[in-house]
Write a structure and sequence with these properties.
heterodimer, A: about 130 residues, alpha+beta, ATP Synthase, domain 1, 2 domains, five-stranded mixed beta sheet, five-stranded antiparallel beta sheet, 10 strands, B: about 290 residues, alpha/beta, Helix Hairpins, Pyruvate Kinase, Chain: A, domain 1, 6 helices, about 15% strand, elongated
């Protein structure tokens, strides 16, 4: 397909996903969701907790990410993230334990605004999945 | 000369040692394959991270206002050394190679009148360093409970280092670990992680024009702490592969030595048995002759 580009998602343990026929990727960038199509300008940005949507042909893959950095250049998109899970593989128990974890983190009085925002965001996304 | 019984006991004891070392070698070989695999799988992440940071730092023109994790605190007085070793012994020169490297670095720092702080990761390194550098060790971390190297552990170490840096407890941070080359060779490495040492690739041509969202500084502030954890994770992966490789070759040697020992002892045992038989025969014959 002519309007497709490469996608690589890596986490510290391994190369999580590598595709070369992606038509669009929507990432939860820090300043709002961002859709990336072929020939997007080179960009570096980082992610907040949310859902990455990967469009390949007629298929849509949805992945939950906790944080990460994206880099797009020369029609290849790299997503570096420390935690990524396919939505289909998330279990109910994991979800609730992750929500609890985020709630615990929020209790910390010394949390700075950015971290508080990220934690709230995480709870939002997880609740929606739940 | 040792009695026959003693020799027999020794032979069987060496044989059982040989069995143990052989088993350990097998286990290390199996673990090595896994550790090597995960070390290889972890490479893309740290490589990409490194590339992005390189690109970012090239785009930062105002070096004065660059984040401290990148540019350093401007001083060079207090050095933090993170010495990463294993939690288990019996792996040849693995741990002592790291501590040897670290010790020569410590000496250099102390000789130039700077302050030294040490964090040990892994209990073996702590054991080897505590005698000479006890007053410098500020923290000892061990991941004995974790079965495999995981990012979560590395992140813990990384966060601790960043917190200490934020409080101004040190100016320069160096990590020590073994880089896995192959089963026989592991190279002890020192790597400076704060401030980040940029490699000498000042080719202005390959600077790409990136769009940044949000601003460069903000991305860098977010990225640099992650990079520290990533570097530590990488070091941990390399270390675990090196540890298994080193143990495997050490145990291979031990097995071979035990085999040689058994051979030598068996010959000695046979000789002394033959000597005893001959002696008895002589006694009988001379007894019969005297009659």
């Amino acid at each position: 397909m002519s309007d497709s580009f490469n996608l690589e998602i890596v986490n510290p343990e391994k190369l999580f996903l590598s595709l070369d026929n992606v038509s669009e990727v929507v990432v939860p960038a820090f300043e709002g969701d961002m859709g990336i199509l072929k020939d997007h300008i080179s960009i570096i940005s980082f992610l907040k907790p949310g859902i990455v949507k990967v469009f390949t042909g007629n298929e849509v893959k949805e992945l939950y990410v906790e944080d990460g950095i994206i880099e797009f250049s020369e029609n290849s998109l790299s997503i570096l993230t420390s935690k990524i899970i396919d939505i289909k593989e998330i279990k109910k128990d994991d979800l609730s334990s992750m929500i609890n974890e985020a709630n615990e983190a929020l209790k910390d009085e010394n949390l700075d605004d950015q971290k508080r925002f990220l934690a709230n965001q995480k709870i939002d996304v997880l609740n929606r999945l739940n | 000369m040792a009695s026959l019984d003693d020799l027999k006991k020794r032979i069987s004891s060496v044989k059982s040692t040989q069995k143990i070392t052989k088993a350990m070698k097998m286990v290390a070989a199996a673990k090595l394959r896994k550790a090597q695999e995960s070390a290889e799988k972890g490479r893309p992440y740290s490589d990409k991270m490194h590339n992005i940071i390189l690109n970012l730092s090239k785009n930062i023109n105002d070096k004065e206002n660059a984040p401290k994790l990148l540019a350093g605190s401007g001083k060079d007085n207090v050095h933090l050394c993170v010495v990463m070793t294993s939690d288990r012994g019996l792996c040849g020169g693995f741990n002592s190679n790291i501590t040897k490297k670290a010790k020569s670095y410590f000496k250099k720092i102390l000789d130039s009148g700077k302050e030294l702080k040490i964090v040990t990761v892994g209990s073996k390194g702590f054991d080897q360093l505590k005698r000479a550098y006890k007053e410098h060790i500020i923290e000892n971390i061990s991941f004995k409970e974790s079965k495999n190297v995981n990012y979560f552990d590395a992140d813990k170490v990384g966060k601790m280092i960043i917190e200490k840096f934020g409080k101004g407890e040190f100016d320069v941070c160096t990590i020590f670990f073994n880089k896995f080359k192959n089963v026989i060779t592991q190279i002890p490495q020192e790597q400076q992680i704060i401030p980040l040492k940029s490699e000498k690739s000042d080719d202005k041509n390959d600077v790409m024009n990136y769009e940044f969202e949000p601003e460069e500084d903000e991305i860098l502030n977010n990225l640099l702490p992650k990079n520290i954890s990533t570097q530590i994770f990488k070091a941990m992966l390399e270390n675990s592969a090196s540890e298994q490789g080193s143990r495997m070759s050490a145990m291979d040697n031990a097995t071979r030595n035990a085999g040689e020992m058994v051979e030598k002892l068996t010959i000695e045992y046979n000789r002394s048995r033959q000597a005893a038989i001959t002696k008895e025969l002589i006694e009988i014959i001379s007894g019969a002759e005297s009659l």
